[in-house]
């Protein structure tokens, strides 16, 4: 509960009417009570896309905060004891789920509702040697399912504002549908094979009928490709006539550049939206990804 907000609400709902009452009945006792059900609920979100989704749906009814600091890659992030305490004081903790947050078992679920936004998904693997992909948010239609789970969580915690959350969700869904149609239309008829840095784009590739190849075989963007893997990707890129190799913001640039040099191509960014800088947004990043994919596949 945000104490400033609570104080402001108590002032408006309780103190001011009592003071007015007191003007004509000075003997009435002034009792300050918490204005039941009128305060904002608090939601902590695991990392950037979930933060934006929850802010959009929660609007002015929810205090939303981001757990993994901006600019920090979320795969290997671990909460401190203080982070755990902060989480347990909130009404909701919204996670991606299905193993993305390896620390979730440390949370006492009797203290805070844990909302698994990935509840609709199984794990997708591109090939048996590859690790799991839980980057649902990179496909706008899977993002909608995550947002349904977030909306349900908000409604359960704050049923009084159910209609409000349903409406904000409806508006946001329309924007995601429009983005989906745009991606589908603009990549239609283009080439299908692309080289991402880590295996974040399985859901995206599946939705738009593309083939994802990756520079590293792990879902941890911090690991380095082996020289065998680099050699394999160089051969693959040559055989598929690929001339753009994707890296991420601040991650994988060097390895992707080595491959690009070998094939006489270049490096562009394909963002998994895990590290999002100030002033950017889900839609802005997805549009940038689409532009770069078009340059790689549609020329
Ligand atoms: Zn990732």
Structure description:
The structure is a single chain. This protein has 299 residues and is α/β, with parallel strands linked by helices. It folds into three domains: 1-38, no CATH class; 39-181, Rossmann fold (3-Layer(aba) Sandwich); 187-297, Nitrogenase molybdenum iron protein domain (Rossmann fold), CATH 3.40.50.1980. Helices cover 44% and strands 11% of the residues. It is built from nine helices and eight strands. The chain has helices spanning 3-24, 48-58, 81-89, 140-157, 162-187, 202-207, 227-239, 253-263, 282-297, and strands spanning 41-45, 62-66, 92-95, 113-116, 193-196, 211-214, 244-247, 266-269. Helix 6 links the parallel strand 5 and strand 6. The model is unreliable at 8-35 (pLDDT under 50). The protein binds zinc ion (ZN). Zinc ion is lined by residues 75, 135, 198, 200, 219, 221, 272, 274.
């Amino acid at each position: 509960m945000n104490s400033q907000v609570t104080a402001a609400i108590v002032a408006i709902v309780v103190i001011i009417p009592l003071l007015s009452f007191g003007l004509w009945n000075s003997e009435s006792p002034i009792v300050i009570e918490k204005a039941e059900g009128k305060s904002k609920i608090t939601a902590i979100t695991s990392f950037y896309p979930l933060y934006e989704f929850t802010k959009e749906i929660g609007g002015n009814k929810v205090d939303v905060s981001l757990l993994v600091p901006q600019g920090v890659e979320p795969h290997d992030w671990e909460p401190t004891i203080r982070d755990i305490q902060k989480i347990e004081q909130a009404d909701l903790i919204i996670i991606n789920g299905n193993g993305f947050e390896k620390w979730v078992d440390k949370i006492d679920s009797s203290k805070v509702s844990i909302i698994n936004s990935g509840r609709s998904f199984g794990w997708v693997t591109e090939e048996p040697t590859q690790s799991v992909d839980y980057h649902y948010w990179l496909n706008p239609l899977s993002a909608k399912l995550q947002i349904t789970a977030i909306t349900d969580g908000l409604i359960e915690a704050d049923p009084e504002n159910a209609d409000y959350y349903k409406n904000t969700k409806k508006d946001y869904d329309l924007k995601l549908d429009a983005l989906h149609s745009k991606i589908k239309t603009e990549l239609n008829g283009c080439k299908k094979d692309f080289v991402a840095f880590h295996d974040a784009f399985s859901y995206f590739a599946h939705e738009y009928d593309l083939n994802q190849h990756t520079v590293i075989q792990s879902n941890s963007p911090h690991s380095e490709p082996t020289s065998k893997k680099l050699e394999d990707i160089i051969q693959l890129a040559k055989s598929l006539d690929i001339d753009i190799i994707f890296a991420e913001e601040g991650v994988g640039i060097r390895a992707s550049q080595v491959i690009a040099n070998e094939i006489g191509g270049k490096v562009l960014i394909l963002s998994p939206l895990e590290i999002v800088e100030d002033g950017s947004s889900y839609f802005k990043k997805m549009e940038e990804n689409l532009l770069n994919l078009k340059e790689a596949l549609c020329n």
